[in-house]
Design brief:
The chain is an alpha/beta fold and 226 residues long. The protein has one domain: TIM Barrel. The chain has 9 helices and 8 strands. The protein has helices at 19-28, 51-58, 78-84, 100-109, 128-132, 159-168, 185-191, 200-203, 208-224; strands at 6-9, 33-39, 64-70, 88-92, 113-118, 139-143, 173-177, 195-198. An 8-stranded parallel β-sheet has the order 1-8-7-6-5-4-3-2. Strand 5, helix 5 and strand 6 form a beta-alpha-beta unit. Helix 7 (185-191) runs parallel beside helix 9. The longest helix is centred in the last third of the chain and has 17 residues, at 208-224. Bound molecules: 5-O-phosphono-D-xylulose and fe (ii) ion. The site of fe (ii) ion has 6 residues, from strand 2. A divalent metal cation binds at residues 35, 37, 68, 177. Pfam families: Ribul_P_3_epim (PF00834). It is an enzyme of class 5 (isomerase). GO terms for molecular function: D-ribulose-phosphate 3-epimerase activity; metal ion binding. Keywords: Carbohydrate metabolism, Cobalt, Isomerase, Manganese, Metal-binding, Zinc.
Amino acid sequence: MGVSPKIAPSMLSSDFANLAAEAKRMIDLGANWLHMDIMDGHFVPNLTIGAPVIESLRKHTNAYLDCHLMVTNPMDYVEQMGKAGASGFTFHVEVAKENWQELVRKIKSAGMRPGVALKPGTPIEEVYPLIEGTTPVEMVLVMTVEPGFGGQKFMPNMMDKVRALRNKYPTLDIEVDGGLGPSTIDAAAAAGANCIVAGSSVFGAPEPGDVISLLRASVEKAQATT
Ligand SMILES: O=C(CO)[C@@H](O)[C@H](O)COP(=O)(O)O
Ligand SMILES: [Fe+2]
């Protein structure tokens, strides 16, 4: 499988008051991406950060900022996120059923990499047209918890979705998000996930760098045996 592992600490579990230092710490410890959870208090019952914080962080790092937009109107944020310096813009399929083609086009024109996310209750078939369209998304984020909060329990039954995607799209970036850590990574890696978001398991560990290395090793091992 030719899809490289990307380990993406979720900065939602970091010390937001020291975001630049936390970002540098994660990159220095071997993270590939920084996962930024943007929540509007409407699509999910939590409110986090937006483009102004991405813009501030961008002044301190050239890392890939993997932005996960848990918002009801993703179109409203494309331009400002692009200007702020976001690298990836992942929207939820549940709120883009009518306008995903225009949305993906705009994300690309704004210089970002488009991704689509789906909630646990959303069937995987709903994202297939977005991967197969003329302007396709470049990543699928399979939520392994209900979106809204860090620190929740991994849902192993979501691995059926990851397996179905990997069988159909051998070179697609497939991200898993929610409850990933040393006890759950092997299931996700075996199913075919290569982009791994981990918040509480990384930031809550005495040695976050060890967790990052373990997550990567698990993905590499699973890839070597498929
Ligand atoms: O998108 C989300 C939550 O909605 C995630 O990115 C979480 O922030 C992951 O945190 P952990 O489950 O790894 O603690
Ligand atoms: Fe996320």
